[in-house]
């Protein structure tokens, strides 16, 4: 299962980032773990000087800004929904091309 970490001290931009991520995850029907990292020492381990930052599976993907919903959705699809990595995709239960798996036409899942 993929892990998404939101690095930040809980400021309004960090809260907006969390909301964007949760919305994107829900829209794409992904099975991921979302964690908030608020301790300065833990954030510094990622070599991030400005927050909010987004880390997917220990790789810093965004730092110092709030991502747009479209950007986050595209990033999650690229990270989570490809033919070689299906760790965050739910089995497709419908054929309406909704969610991650349906949008990529990979049959039962990504």
What does this 3D model show about the protein?
This protein is an alpha+beta fold and 110 residues long. It has one domain: Glutaredoxin (3-Layer(aba) Sandwich), CATH 3.40.30.10. It is 36% helix and 19% strand. Strands 2-1-3-4 form a four-stranded mixed beta sheet. Helix 1 (12-28) links the parallel strand 1 (2-7) and strand 2 (32-37). It is globular, with a radius of gyration of 14 Å. The two termini are 14 Å apart. Mean pLDDT is 80; it is low at 91-110.
Concise account of the structure shown:
The protein is an alpha+beta fold and 110 residues long.
Q: Which helices and strands occur, and which strands form pairs?
A:
Blueprint: E1 2-7, H1 12-28, E2 32-37, H2 40-44, E3 53-56, E4 59-63, H3 69-80, H4 99-104
Parallel strand pairs: 1-2
Antiparallel strand pairs: 1-3, 3-4
Helix pairs in contact: 1-3
Describe the largest sheet: 4 strands, mixed
Radius of gyration: 14 Å
How large is the share of residues in beta strands? Answer: 15-25%
CATH class: Alpha Beta
Spatial order of the strands in the main sheet? 2-1-3-4
Query: In CATH terms, what is the fold-level topology?
Result: Glutaredoxin
What's the rounded overall pLDDT mean? 80
Binned, the helix content reads 25-40%
CATH homologous superfamily, by name? Glutaredoxin
Count of separate structural domains: 1
